[in-house]
């Protein structure tokens, strides 16, 4: 377990020679790697494989429980960072590891339960790819700071000094999606945090720039696989 994090606290980029599982017992954790950004609100566990450089940001007052996975066992989990849905058994076994001495027979048994449950746990599909090109990053940084921003790509290009045509090409080449698709995915990721905080579906839609709740519900359901109302209730 790391020290409690206040809302907005950052953990600088670093890496380990072992795998790491990360669970926010309270609050939510946003993890960023070169491959993209993952959001893990309530009942989600983030997996970071060995040697993957990652940074973090807390959403709300966040208490993170960390669980190291030896490199020899890491091959049982995906080779890329991932977020899993935590069943009650997975969550309780995971939290119980914090009370056991490292390497003890019970700790090894609990780790085996955790890895076995993760092998069958659903994975969240919501990876938000992040750009390497500085011109594109200038645009995505603006949207990260204000996901509700209604600006067109042309207007964002004028603000950052790059043409709409160039930016459109970069979105397709670097991120394999269009500008509207990327912004929608960003907004849905942020919606997971808002709904996890108990914000209503209507207020979440308004805060994140949707024209109306119905369009938000359609976009959220298409990406998450359930309505925002159901997600909020089960979260």
From TrEMBL:
Pfam families: AraC_binding, HTH_18. Residues 137-234 form the HTH araC/xylS-type domain. InterPro entries: AraC-bd, Homeodomain-like_sf, HTH_AraC, RmlC-like_jellyroll, RmlC_Cupin_sf. Keywords: DNA-binding, Transcription, Transcription regulation. The keyword Membrane does not apply. This is Helix-turn-helix transcriptional regulator. It comes from Amycolatopsis plumensis.
């Amino acid at each position: 377990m790391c020290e409690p994090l206040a809302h907005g606290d950052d953990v600088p980029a670093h890496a380990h020679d072992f795998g790491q599982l990360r669970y926010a017992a309270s609050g939510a954790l946003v993890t960023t790697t070169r491959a993209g950004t993952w959001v893990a609100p309530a009942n989600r566990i983030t997996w970071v494989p060995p040697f993957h450089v990652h940074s973090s940001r807390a959403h709300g007052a966040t208490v993170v429980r960390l669980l190291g996975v030896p490199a020899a066992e890491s091959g049982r989990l995906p080779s890329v960072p991932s977020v899993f849905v935590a069943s009650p058994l997975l969550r309780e076994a995971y939290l119980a590891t914090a009370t056991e001495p490292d390497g003890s027979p019970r700790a090894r048994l609990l780790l085996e339960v955790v890895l076995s449950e993760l092998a069958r746990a659903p994975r969240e599909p919501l990876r938000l790819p992040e750009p390497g090109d500085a011109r594109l990053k200038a645009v995505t940084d603006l949207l990260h700071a204000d996901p509700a921003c209604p600006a067109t790509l042309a207007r964002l290009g004028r603000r950052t000094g790059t043409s709409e045509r160039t930016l459109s090409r970069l979105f397709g080449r670097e991120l394999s999606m269009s500008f509207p698709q990327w912004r929608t995915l960003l907004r849905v990721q942020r919606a997971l945090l808002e709904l996890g905080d108990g914000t209503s579906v209507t207020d979440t839609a308004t805060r994140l720039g949707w024209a109306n709740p119905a369009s938000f519900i359609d976009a959220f359901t298409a990406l998450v696989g359930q309505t925002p109302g159901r997600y909020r209730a089960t979260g």
